[in-house]
Design goal:
Strand 6 and strand 7 form a beta hairpin. By secondary structure, this protein is α/β, with parallel strands linked by helices. It folds into 2 domains: 69 residues, LysM domain (Membrane-bound Lytic Murein Transglycosylase D, Chain A, Roll), CATH 3.10.350; 148 residues, Lysozyme-like (3-Layer(aba) Sandwich), CATH 3.40.80.10. The strands form 3 sheets. Strands 7-6-8-5-9 form a 5-stranded mixed sheet. A two-stranded antiparallel ribbon has the order 1-4. It has a two-stranded antiparallel ribbon with strand order 2-3. It contains 8 helices and 9 strands.
């Protein structure tokens, strides 16, 4: 009798484990109906409180003059005129623009009508410095023909971007599959967010964490993603990785996401 109880108990443990693994792996097999429309920009208060001033801006992947104008609250025509640009299509990644009388940079998070996105997967770049442009170059050297594999990058202030700045990638703007996690179907249904830095022994900056909470909750609300489906790269079944690093403050992050602060 006791032996029979143990068998049933072990069976139910295995059944629960199978359900969990299947739920995370279901993205790879289930059809994902997508209804994509034009982007809606969700704009938040600026990262800082600096007075308006002329600044320089390096164009990153997926940035258009329209999006840059929204980031700095400066009209498109003003930016084009200040840089002697007749056709906005002339802009290229890495080009330096003068932004006249720019307001403090503010987060602009584009969202799209879609039923595709079911998970949010958190990564670290395992580099001490960088931004979306430099990570795009790294991924292209690794053979990613569409470049940057993440959907969003959160900078640490070591390159062309300020600490905590959120960058949307070309894959996100095009609503394309990611190239950030090749198991569990996460490239197809998981929004990949990468924080610049190596969190093996050090934590992300406070501003990076603030921006991560803001971004994750924006995406969770828009795409109806439960907190249980906000996961680390290493949480994906079949993935042998420590990403986003042993020092990433996961519990603190989840608590902040849950509280919205």
């Amino acid at each position: 009798m006791i032996f029979g109880v143990k068998i049933r108990f072990d069976f139910f443990k295995l059944l629960i484990l199978a359900v969990v693994v299947t739920a995370i792996s279901s993205c790879a097999t289930a059809p994902l109906p997508v209804s994509q429309g034009p982007a809606t920009d969700i704009i938040y208060k600026p990262y800082g409180t600096a007075a308006r001033q002329d600044i320089s801006h390096i164009i990153g992947p997926a940035e258009t003059v329209y999006r840059i104008s929204r980031m700095y609250d400066v009209p498109i025509d003003t930016i084009l005129k200040a840089n002697n640009i007749a056709d906005p299509k002339e802009l290229r990644i890495g080009q330096k623009l003068v932004i006249p009388q720019a307001a403090s940079l503010r987060p602009v998070i584009p969202v799209f009508r879609s039923s595709k996105w079911r998970y949010i997967v958190i990564h670290h770049s395992v580099t001490d410095s960088g931004d979306a442009q430099s990570l795009d170059l790294i991924h292209r050297r690794r053979g990613f023909d569409r470049g940057l594999g993440y959907h969003f990058v959160i900078d640490n202030g070591t390159s062309t971007r300020i600490d905590g700045q959120i960058e949307a990638s070309p894959r996100w703007i095009k609503q394309s599959d990611g190239a950030h996690c090749n198991t569990g179907g996460m490239n197809e249904c998981g929004i990949g967010i990468c924080l610049v830095g190596d969190f093996t022994n050090e934590e992300p900056s406070r501003k990076q964490m603030d921006s991560l909470v803001l971004l994750v909750n924006t995406l969770r609300k828009f795409y109806h993603i439960s907190l249980s489906r906000v996961i680390r790269h290493k949480d994906v079944p079949g993935k042998n990785t420590a990403c986003p690093g042993d020092s990433f403050p996961w519990k603190e992050f989840k608590d902040r996401v849950k509280s919205g602060r």
